[in-house]
Design a protein that fits this description.
- There is one protein chain.
- The chain is mainly alpha-helical.
- It contains eight helices and no strands.
- It is elongated and about 125 Å long.
Length: 262
């Protein structure tokens, strides 16, 4: 066995058979090194996996779109909304219910934005696989074409095809809009969860994030005041020392004048 072949087999074993490329390489070898029925079946199986994931994401997005609260529409179930409205009229519960509803809305927006970005990425992966299948077919039909001679080389073909599609997606208006929504929704959800956590800690009489920030501000202020106080004390000490020296000089002058007089 050649050294390169042994290294390739070892690299293939290190992959553990996981991922699409080892399976495609095994199918390509089963076809005798040229795309055939086994390779086509392997591609179809990978397409089916991606299609299943895409269907799940689209179903989730459609379900979330149907549940999205609009103007005058309650975010909670019909049977729960009247109870929450009644609780919201009670002073002690008003803030808590409002925070809970804001967190639910933020989570809804985050899940919607995340599913949109994930679907776009999966579509890009599927398009990259289609490009790889097309490139293998073109190389097989070209008398001067060269097919991958190792699993690592096939992996490089796949990475190149996928990166081209990925770069195209990142430069598109669709991704800019979707990722912008995801970024805003993530920031909103984190802020809402922090507000919920701070309120819960405050309810348990425990220090929360705001308390730590306030304590840090107070420490900074005390440090400034201490430095200012130390400076004032030092100035007062210098003034007292100057006054004492002046008094000593005056005393020495008086003594000197007394000795000089007849």
């Amino acid at each position: 066995m050649a050294a390169s072949e042994a290294f390739d087999n070892e690299w293939l074993r290190s992959m553990g058979g996981a991922g699409p490329i080892p399976r495609l390489w095994e199918a390509l070898q089963a076809d005798g090194g040229r795309p055939g029925p086994a390779c086509a079946a392997a591609f179809q199986a990978l397409y089916a996996q991606l299609d299943t994931a895409l269907i799940g994401l689209r179903t989730l997005a459609e379900g979330l779109a149907g549940q999205e609260p609009g103007a005058g529409q309650e975010a909670d179930p019909a049977w729960l909304a009247p109870w929450l409205q009644s609780l919201a009229r009670l002073g002690p519960w008003q803030d808590a219910v409002g925070r809970t509803q804001e967190t639910q809305a933020a989570l809804h927006r985050y899940t919607t934005a995340y599913s949109e970005c994930a679907a776009a990425l999966l579509e890009t992966v599927r398009a990259g696989l289609q490009d790889l299948e097309r490139q293998l077919g073109e190389a097989a039909d070209d008398p001067e074409g060269t097919l991958p001679q190792s699993c690592q080389e096939l992996h490089r073909w796949w990475v190149a095809a996928g990166e081209a599609r990925h770069d195209a997606l990142l430069g598109s208006e669709r991704w800019a809009t979707a990722f912008g929504r995801l970024t805003n929704a993530t920031t909103e959800l984190i802020g809402s969860c922090q507000a919920q956590l701070d309120a819960g800690l405050r309810h348990l009489d425990l220090p929360n994030r705001e308390d730590f920030i306030d304590t840090q501000r107070r420490l900074v202020q005390l440090e400034r005041e201490r430095r200012g106080s130390a400076g004032s004390e030092e100035i007062e000490a210098l003034r007292a020392e100057i006054a004492r020296l002046r008094e000593e000089v005056a005393t020495l002058r008086r003594q000197s004048e007394g000795h000089d007089s007849p």
